[in-house]
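Q: What does the assembly look like in three dimensions?
Context provided by user:
Components: two
Sequences:
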Amino acid sequence: MLSSKNDLIHHFCSMLRIRRVEEVLAERYPEGEMRCPMHLYIGQEAIAVGVCATLSGSDMVFSNHRAHGHYLAKGGNLNRMIAEIYCRSTGCCGGRGGSMHLIDLEVGFKGSTPIVGGTIPLAVGAALAAKMKGSDQVVVAFFGDGAFEEGVVHESLNFAALKNLPLIFVCENNGYSVYSNLEERQPKRPIAPIPKSHGWEIYIGDGNDIQAVVDISCEAISRARQGKGPQFLELETYRWSEHCGPNEDDHLGYRPPRELEKWKDKCPIKRTQKHLLDEGLISENKLVAIQETIESEIHKAFEFARLSPAPTPDTLFHFSNLEDTKCVPN
Amino acid sequence: MRAELTFAEAVKEAIDYCMSQDDSVFAIGEGVPDPKAIFGTTLGLREKYGPDRVLDMPLSENALTGVCVGSALSGMRPILMHQRADFAFLSMDQIINNAAKWHYMFNGQANTPLVIRMVVGRGWGQGPQHSNSPQALFAHIPGLKVIMPTNPKDAKGMLISAIEDDGPVICIEHRWTHHIKGDVPEEPYREPLGKARIMREGKDITIASFSYMTIEAISLADAFKKEGINIEVIDMRSASPLDHDTVVESVRKTGHLAILDTSWTTCGISAELSARVSEKGFKYLKKPPLRIALPDIPTPTSPPLSETFYPTADVVGRKILEMLSIQRSEDWEKVLSELRGNGPFDVPYLNFKGPF
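A: Here is the predicted structure of the complete assembly.
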């Protein structure tokens, strides 16, 4: 299925917006105001955008430590995300989570956490609840190749197939877990046939090709919604930045020379931009206007975050079992 | 008044009531719909509510705990059950990192109403991996409530409260309480979570006991009362929140405290209670608190070893006489010997034939 011109421009804007948000996060991180670990998604944007573009607002998404892209693609509030990374009271967790704990229930972004594999069974449970209630919602879990090594994922594959759940697993295979190459961690075999043997429908694709991701997602999500059971997407992609933090870390030498350059040539945003320009689907002027709109929105979000108050110590016990006690911090 | 119910029947009545009131309540666990029905506690529920609400479970404790949490985040109220608490150790990530923390870490935007029932095994060779009583482990985790009912009335009332609670509740049931009978009101009622219950009033010494040790404590108190020693028995009922105030109040009167627990001594819930009572009621204590819990070794299987491993009412009685500086006499030996009985000691009641 070919996206219409407007769809493709929309996907391009979404990817560019995520990219620019993270580039500004990286620029400003050394200022020391974002006092939490931060895992950048730069290079992988086509996957979040392609998958989420085919979801409806009430569909649900669970995510992991590298969540900025998933959150924004699902429609999460930008101001509240930046404020959360700045650990402010206006953040999406009121400053209790930081970059690794994002949530926006208004748009079905159910939560992201940094225990690898930790939210995957939660997505299965949300899909079970959707099925029990007879709703037509589907649930997506985003995770990386590393999560596929967790036992809980294999337990989840078994149960979701057993119950024929309206569920989509999106495995973003970027080849690395922190500094460890996939070859150090898994045998030389593709990932997707394992869920297939559990009875899942599987799809393997280029995670840096927005059109390919959209096409695969459309089919997978529509099958899940029709009650045809769980769907597994394995999408190849690449992480440009260091595992955690604002910088690139190619100088450490844990990746082969020129691997990063090769993947930068396959940048999902550059590819889409070139296609739009080459095919005359967008003008240079329109492109500049898009960029200006995005920059202005981002600037305002950072101002919102930086001017927001930090949570005050008297709220420490809110939402805990100690809320009603007179306990105060020493 | 209708006939007495067993603890197991009272548990079933609580689950049945909650499922009848709220479509979002469902029951899941390994063996829930099987003929043994988790020691009879889920008997007939599948016939009444169907396979979509009464689920068997693959042997995937961690993922299925996560599935329950995920469903709870979408408005369900799951009751997950393990035939042995030891099996729940496979699901510590989902219990600690997700169920317990979700409400706080997401700033109160979502709840994880979830009850996890765990049965503590003892006797008939349960051995090292079928006998854990993990109240201290879970009580250590902020965000969890940990309850340990010991009689049928509390089992029903506390379980209804647990299922209706908006947060995660760990319900630890001792296998040696399931057959115990008692009066259970037919109508639904709620017992508080985190509130101890005074089972016997007394002025000479306070026993604060957890789970099955309350049964031992009551036998002891009844036997000692005939000899003129009045033991106040407090069934703690919950390990978290821990109702130390009730114990401090009692110690103000008795001046002596013995704490009985079904798990290990070191870093056990007896240590926490001892510390709290000492902090708040030091001036009332005439002697240091006495802790009687399991020795810090895994549970041995062979009866001669496990008989020594588990403290019984007579063992507690000896230590209490010592604490109260009461000279042991032939009369006392007779009392203690009757408390001990003739065994066998590896069964909850004399005609128990195993295997569970």
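Follow-up: Chain A touches chain B through 41 residues (CB under 8 Å).
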